[in-house]
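Task: sequence design from structure.
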């Protein structure tokens, strides 16, 4: 009989956030595969768990996944943990999970902490529809291209970000997503846990000339016209109506409103402008 692969979430800061089930299973498995054996050893020692560990990280994932799957097929029960939070969420683990599923090995997840859900729940931003975008690319052009793609979602966007890059990311997000409501969730579950809630422009000003430290989740709310678009009646809202209502509600000029609507609809500004003129002409025709 093959063994079981357990995916075990570990705390993202506060050690009390480990579950009773995680402690039990970690104490029962034959082997604990971890991103960093020294890091996980400290966690296991804290809870007086003494099981063998083996490294499984982004640089040895391919070979290690094969080795571990062989052990699973031979009957070993293996726990996979990452340094913090839920394995596979911006962390290694995909290969062994995929391979185990393909080879008929049971994969059992043990839920627990993840910075993404922890930050989102307390953000105060819409949670019914969100996109987890993980880490944005570090290169500016690729990062900006990704943000432009994400601009078309009528969803809350969740990013992991490093403290060194947070200002650049917020600057790019402000330009490409518009000045949306947003939250920096920092050092979650730790002593210096902090939530900074403001529009992107406000966050940028707050960080101006200031170094920010620690682990960060950046959450950007949906575009401001989200409510109107979601509450759309069965007939689609015309582009003209959308532009005019944005101008009125947000006090912006036609070009700025058009830019936002184009971005939200995933079309170019020039196409949006053509549609706007056509709708205006159509309305004038109807009135004649
Ligand atoms: N697997 C983890 C999870 O489930 O959240 C995420 C691992 S990813 C390599 C690490 C990133 O998660 C950090 O750079 C930060 O963006 C976010 N993160 C992890 N712990 C955090 C915390 N305590 N507070 C805020 N963000 C955190």
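Answer:
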């Amino acid at each position: 009989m093959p063994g079981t692969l357990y995916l075990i979430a570990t705390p993202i800061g506060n050690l009390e956030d480990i579950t009773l089930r995680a402690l039990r299973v970690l104490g029962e498995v034959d082997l604990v595969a971890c991103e960093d054996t020294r890091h996980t050893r400290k966690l296991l020692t804290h809870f007086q768990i003494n099981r063998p560990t083996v490294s499984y990280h982004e640089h040895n994932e391919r070979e290690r996944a094969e080795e571990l799957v062989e052990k699973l097929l031979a009957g070993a029960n293996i726990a996979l943990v990452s340094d913090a939070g839920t394995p596979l969420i911006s962390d290694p683990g995909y290969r062994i999970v995929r391979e185990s599923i393909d080879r008929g090995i049971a994969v059992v997840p043990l839920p627990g902490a993840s910075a993404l859900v922890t930050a989102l729940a307390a953000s105060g931003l819409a949670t019914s529809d969100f996109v987890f975008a993980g880490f944005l690319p570090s290169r500016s052009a690729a990062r900006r291209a990704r943000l432009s793609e994400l601009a078309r979602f009528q969803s809350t966007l969740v990013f992991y970000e490093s403290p060194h890059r947070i200002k650049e990311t917020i600057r790019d997000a402000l330009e490409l997503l518009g000045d949306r409501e947003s939250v920096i969730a920092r050092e979650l579950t730790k002593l210096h846990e902090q939530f900074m809630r403001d529009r992107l422009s406000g966050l940028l000003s707050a960080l101006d000339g200031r170094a920010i430290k620690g682990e960060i989740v950046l959450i950007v709310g949906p575009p401001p016209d989200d409510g109107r678009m979601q509450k759309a009646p069965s007939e689609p809202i015309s582009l003209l109506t959308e532009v005019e209502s944005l101008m009125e509600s947000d006090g912006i000029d036609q070009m700025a409103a058009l830019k936002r609507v184009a971005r939200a609809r995933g079309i170019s500004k020039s196409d949006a402008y053509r549609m706007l003129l056509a709708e205006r002409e159509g309305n004038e025709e109807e009135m004649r």
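Confidence is low (pLDDT under 50) at residues 226-235.
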